[in-house]
Design goal:
This protein has about 500 residues and is mainly α. About 65% of the residues lie in helices and about 0% in strands. Keywords: Ion transport, Membrane, Transmembrane, Transmembrane helix, Transport. InterPro entries: Cat_transpt, TrkH_K-transport.
């Protein structure tokens, strides 16, 4: 009788939500709920006539750290910027992974309680579980302090730079943006690899402020592609200082803790080499093709190199820009599309036959110990499509929703521009070629009443149906880690 009553209490439903719900559905519900709350907050505090679809698009873009935009950033008040800052923080990968660690610890505690109630004779097993619980608790604390420290130091560094460099400070004064909100907003956005900046032009207005760009480059790396490397270095340093056995266990048994961002030492090294290798390749291609183009807008060689470096670093999921991508060569756009498509932890990792054998043994153990619920999940995984298939479907859908624009405005609404926008949304990057009135076939020169250039993404000119499809793309892209093996059942032979 007591059990029946407990099953109808809020605690029971919270237990189901935290411990029984499929991880994919849990995260999907988290991002959709957060986007909806953000939309309501933006709508209730908005005094401008922004359409509901654009406000929800902006909220979803902030939560999924995509920075796709259909509105100019300077239409948002300071209150709106604070709301967007909170959304980007709560939607960032490091923050959500920290929540995941806390949830894992709670699950272990819950399983321990159940084990004590049912079984009391596995002391050694309980000892291993206790060690794992302590390691996860310490790891969660380190990630939390890492998150707080990077945001604090990053925001302070931006404030100091703006205080010392009058040219950068004057940009904010001219636009009426407070130094404090700009610094915190930009630090949170950059570390989360969202790409939103309070200025309409993103970072284009700061293309000559190389010091600011270098600060942001570090935040980009620390919050995404090099986060596993930074985290392992932090754990190694902390272990050397404190000599704690739990930290040594974390370093030696990183995979057993189930935290995907914590990699073994060798894999971390290869990841760092791969990330830097991608940067070098992009720098060579970008500088070779665009070095003498006027759109770079800087004559100083140092400023030009830093600007190019900032642009290519942001092609891997960050999305901030110092150049107008609408005028770069198609070859560079294709290269950026490839970089945006690649997962953040893509790395070249040569393995030997012994490692392959170990992986096969591990897979066999996993397959033989799956619960019935997880078996259903893995069977479902075998029938889903690959990521490229989904991207192709989304591009086709956008071409259908925007077919009228593709007929009347074929230069702006070409397939390559649509592909860039879709891949950027799926990769949660935020790069966009924008929209140019001068490229219209029937552009009348001074016809401001007919067409007016605006500082927002290409999607801002799409139909409501096209914007809705892109919102779906952003959500699926944010959850693409659950579909990394999709399409395995398809044999292309």
């Amino acid at each position: 009788m007591c059990t029946m009553k407990w099953k109808h209490t809020p605690s029971y439903f919270l237990h189901i939500l935290l411990f029984r719900l499929n991880p994919f559905l849990f995260e999907l519900g988290y991002f959709v709920t957060l986007s909806s709350v953000g939309f309501l907050a933006l709508k209730s505090t908005s005094s401008n006539p922004a359409r509901k679809i654009d406000l929800f698009f902006t909220s979803a873009s902030a939560v999924t750290v995509s920075s796709m935009s259909t509105l100019e950033m300077e239409v948002f008040s300071t209150t709106h910027l604070v709301i967007l800052t909170v959304l980007m923080l709560l939607g960032g990968e490091v923050f959500t992974s920290m929540l995941g660690l806390r949830l894992t610890k709670a699950k272990i505690n819950n399983n321990q309680i159940r084990s004590r109630q049912m079984i009391a004779e596995f002391d050694r097993s309980n000892s291993d579980v206790n060690m794992k619980r302590k390691c996860i608790e310490i790891l969660a604390s380190l990630v939390t302090w890492y998150l707080l420290a990077v945001h604090a130091v990053g925001s302070a560094s931006i404030v100091v730079y703006l205080s010392l460099v009058p040219s950068a400070r004057r940009v904010l004064e001219r636009k009426g943006i407070g130094m404090g909100i700009f610094s915190v907003f930009t630090a949170v956005s950059t570390f989360a690899n969202c790409g939103f900046v309070p200025t309409n032009e993103n970072m284009i207005v700061f293309k000559k402020n190389s010091g600011l760009l270098l600060i942001l480059i570090q935040l980009v790396f620390m919050g995404n592609t090099l986060y596993p490397v930074c985290l392992r270095l932090l754990i190694w340093f902390t272990e050397k200082v404190t000599k704690r056995a739990e930290l040594r266990y974390v370093l030696e048994n990183s995979r057993e803790l189930g935290y995907g961002h914590l990699m073994p030492g060798l894999e971390s090294v290869y990841l760092g080499i791969t990330v830097l290798g991608f940067v070098v390749v992009q720098m060579v291609v970008f500088c070779s093709l665009e070095w003498n183009n006027n759109f770079l807008g800087v004559s100083n060689y140092y400023e030009r190199i830093v600007g190019c470096l900032f642009q290519v670093v942001n092609s891997r999921h960050a999305g901030e820009s110092v150049f107008d991508l609408g005028v770069v060569s198609p070859a560079v756009l294709v290269l950026f599309v490839i970089m945006m498509y690649l997962p953040p932890y893509t790395s070249y990792l040569p393995i030997n036959e012994h490692q392959v054998a170990d992986e096969n043994i591990t897979k066999h153990i996993i397959n033989t110990t799956l619960t019935s619920r997880n078996k259903v999940y893995y069977k479902w995984e075998n029938i889903v499509f690959s990521q490229l298939t989904y991207l192709s479907i989304f591009v086709i859908l956008i071409c259908i929703t925007e077919r009228q624009n593709m007929k009347t405005d074929p230069i702006n609404f070409n397939v390559l521009n649509i592909v860039v926008e879709v891949i950027s949304a799926y990769g949660n990057v935020g790069f966009s070629v924008g929209y140019s009135c001068e490229k219209q076939m029937h552009y009348s020169g001074g016809g401001a009443a007919v067409c007016k250039d605006a500082w927002y993404g290409f999607a801002g000119r799409w139909s409501d149906e096209g914007k809705f499809v892109l919102i779906v793309v952003m959500f699926i892209g944010r959850l693409k880690k659950f579909n990394m093996r999709g399409g395995r059942a398809w044999i292309l032979a």
